[in-house]
Amino acid sequence: MPDAISVLDAVHRDGYEGIDLGPVGYLGSKTDLQTRLAARGLHLSGGYVAMPFSDPAGMDAAIAELRTMLDLFDTVKAPNHVPAPKPTLADAGSGARRSAPGRANADRGLGLQPEGWDRMAANLQVAMALCRERGYEPTFHHHAGTYVEAPWEIEELLARSDVGLCLDTGHLALGGGDPIRAIKDWGPRINHIHLKDIRRSVIDALIREGASMMDVWRRGAFCRLGTGDLDIDAILKGVRAIAYHGWLVVEQDMIPGPETSTDAAALDQDRNRAYLRARGL
Q1: Number of structural domains, the chain?
Q2: Domain of 230: which CATH number?
Q3: pLDDT averages per 10-residue partition of the chain, 281 residues
Q4: pTM of the shown model
């Protein structure tokens, strides 16, 4: 893993306006995070926290983690012209779901039973209330390998809550969805976007082989913008059509192998930024 300063310098050098928090404490603490961001003209776009919404036994620890993340948010509140950082909530899933990414769309038996959805909705409400009490509007990240992955699971979550949706184009495609249709269907609920491209041949093979989420990241299912199979231009057109004004977070989740150069991620994000800059972003 590169150190935080190297990451912040690379993100600044590539021309990004902000960065997601990453693991709490990685980019900085309550005493130095704001200074590190401000020195590079960067803002905080959000922070991700996975919570066991369908498992009450784990919620106390997850709520404590969420509070810690919001404490960091408080140290770097955005100016009025910049979107505030989004608490990005996600389901923590289970071992069974992490070993079966992309399969719930065709096999609903992998999903929650009604009582599981009841617990999910109730615990999500607690997390949302905490975020709003602290002055932050939450967003929910549908994530492969969790109980909110397939389009039907996303629909169920949206029906059971008023939480905003973090549209992740790569995870939606892996879960069996279409990002362009999602923008049309869920546009009013989208309040955060994670933009990534995918290699469908890799995803299809992973699902066929019964591979795990770790394999998704190791085998490069998510790739540089414009080098995969998603129609990024059509996605951006759809985003403009719904007059979206939040953060557009460029993500390229991957686990580097021993042959991967240490600067590969930074080079890819430089190219991702150039790709978007050529499209007026």
Answers
A1: 1
A2: 3.20.20.150
A3: 93 96 95 97 97 93 98 92 96 95 96 97 98 98 97 98 98 98 98 98 96 94 96 98 96 85 88 97 95
A4: 0.96
